[in-house]
Amino acid sequence: MSENSSSDPPNSTQGPTTDKKAPQEKPVDPMQEPEEEIDIDLDAPETEKAALAIQSQFRRFQKKKK
């Protein structure tokens, strides 16, 4: 029996294979609206308060989860 019989699957040491797929790009839908850019002032006091509130709720959620 030979080493390269037709019933054996090719392995990576036998050379390049052609069945590998290239990464596929997402299809672009022409009807889809472009993504809206959001401008947030990260130095604003309201933003800091909101961030602290979100972080506090997340910490409580993590404690409950344990």
Automatic annotation (TrEMBL):
Residues 32-45 have a biased composition (Acidic residues). Residues 1-17 have a biased composition (Polar residues). InterPro entries: Calmodulin_Regulator_PCP4-like. Residues 18-28 have a biased composition (Basic and acidic residues). Residues 1-47 are annotated as: Disordered. Belongs to the PCP4 family. This is Purkinje cell protein 4-like protein 1. It comes from Sinocyclocheilus rhinocerous. The lineage of its organism: Eukaryota, Metazoa, Chordata, Craniata, Vertebrata. The gene is LOC107738244.
